[in-house]
């Protein structure tokens, strides 16, 4: 268990280096990059705010995109609440560790003590290596010449693509992805940078609600079917109702791209 | 300005994490909430990819970044690890700029 936690932390340390490099290449300072990794501590959101600022978007538009992307952590927290059973100051502390990797290492473990150990071990190890990796990446990117000549401006979209890929296993995500991309591009000439992404998010929210309506019409009385989550979701829907089923066998210490999914 | 955005975004992300540990289960169990939560990251990531690859300021563009993204797609199809995906996209874009 502790080796698994260390392995995942090491893998994300490498990922953190690229995150730090992208942040400073986008125009954030080293202290800002470090503050993001320690205070925000959820990778996809860090990439997002750096990405929006990098293309000249309003910092607060970037912040809004980052917060929306962080929304999924609330669903992880929901899964972890009964397992961790923390209150007060411990809960406030544990909350910062509620991310993809810690959830995957905690949910579905038997006995529950192992799940709690997985959460805390992964949380501490990742927090330390995530901050260190971001700092190294940020300092490394500082000594580089013009990041655009080096192609660093494509690093963020490529990273987003790698985060997106595991979610594209069915038709519905493709539809959503196309609608969002088309909306954002259509709005780009008209709205300040960063805002088109928020508009796309709004379009997706409306679309998601409508998709549910038609889904219910096709499957009356089956609205609770947990089919809305892609199979590669780090903490799959069904694990909440099958706690006895050991899910840890498919996570040998971290390394496959799917484990690097949106953090 | 960037500092304020960094702090605000960090606080927002933290509150979402804390909310998950605190909010009564049935609110986040609502199928609509879950559907939006599952599809919103897909939409946000694709919108970010589209705008950061195919636009420059307020103009839609097709430049070496698109080729870099294409290389990233190939790397992903070959199941390359994360750093290789990003690294090959960066290298392809830089190379193409050098040649152009």
Automatic annotation (TrEMBL), chain A:
Residues 214-228, 239-248 have a biased composition (Basic and acidic residues). The chain crosses the membrane at residues 7-27, 47-69, 117-137, 149-165, 172-188. InterPro entries: Brnchd-chn_aa_trnsp_permease (IPR011606). The keyword Transmembrane helix applies. Keywords: Cell membrane, Membrane, Transmembrane, Transmembrane helix, Transport. It is found in: Cell membrane. It comes from the Bacteria. Residues 214-263 are annotated as: Disordered. GO terms for cellular component: plasma membrane. It is a multi-pass membrane protein. PANTHER family: INNER MEMBRANE PROTEIN YGAZ. Belongs to the AzlC family. This is Branched-chain amino acid ABC transporter permease. It comes from Sphaerisporangium album.
TrEMBL record, chain B:
It comes from the Bacteria. Pfam families: AzlD. InterPro entries: Brnchd-chn_aa_trnsp_AzlD. The chain crosses the membrane at residues 6-24, 36-54, 66-99. Keywords: Membrane, Transmembrane, Transmembrane helix. This is AzlD domain-containing protein. It comes from Sphaerisporangium album. The lineage of its organism: Bacteria, Bacillati, Actinomycetota, Actinomycetes, Streptosporangiales.
């Amino acid at each position: 268990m502790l080796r698994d936690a260390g392995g995942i932390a090491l893998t994300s340390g490498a990922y953190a280096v690229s995150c730090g490099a992208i942040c400073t290449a986008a125009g954030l300072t080293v202290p800002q990059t470090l503050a993001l990794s320690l205070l925000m501590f959820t990778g996809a959101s860090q990439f997002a705010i750096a990405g929006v600022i990098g293309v000249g978007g309003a910092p607060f538009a970037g912040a809004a995109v980052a917060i929306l992307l962080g929304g999924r952590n609330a669903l992880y927290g929901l899964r972890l609440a009964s397992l961790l059973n923390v209150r007060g100051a411990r809960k406030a502390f544990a909350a910062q560790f509620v991310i993809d990797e810690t959830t995957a290492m905690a949910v579905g473990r038997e006995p529950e003590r192992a799940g709690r150990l997985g959460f805390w071990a992964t949380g501490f190890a990742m927090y330390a290596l995530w901050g260190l990796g971001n700092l190294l990446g940020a300092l490394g990117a500082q000594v580089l010449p013009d990041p655009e000549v080096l192609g660093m401006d494509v690093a963020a979209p490529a990273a987003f693509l790698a985060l997106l890929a595991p979610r594209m296993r069915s038709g519905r995500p493709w539809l959503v992805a196309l609608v969002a991309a088309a909306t954002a591009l259509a709005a780009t000439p008209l709205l300040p940078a960063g805002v088109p992404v928020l508009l796309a998010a709004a379009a997706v929210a409306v679309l998601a609600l409508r998709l549910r309506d038609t889904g219910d019409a096709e499957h009356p009385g089956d609205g609770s079917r947990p089919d809305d989550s892609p199979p590669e979701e780090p903490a799959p829907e069904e694990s909440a109702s099958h706690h006895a089923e050991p899910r840890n066998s498919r996570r040998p210490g971290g390394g496959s791209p799917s484990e690097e999914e949106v953090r | 300005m960037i500092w304020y955005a960094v702090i605000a975004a960090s606080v927002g992300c933290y509150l979402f994490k804390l909310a998950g540990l605190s909010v009564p289960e049935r609110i986040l169990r609502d199928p609509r909430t879950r559907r939006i939560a599952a599809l919103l990251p897909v939409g946000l990531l694709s919108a970010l990819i589209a705008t950061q690859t195919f636009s420059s300021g307020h103009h839609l563009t097709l430049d070496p970044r698109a080729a870099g993204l294409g290389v990233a797609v190939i790397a992903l199809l070959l199941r390359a690890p994360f750093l290789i995906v990003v690294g090959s996209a960066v290298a392809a874009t830089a190379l193409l700029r050098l040649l152009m």
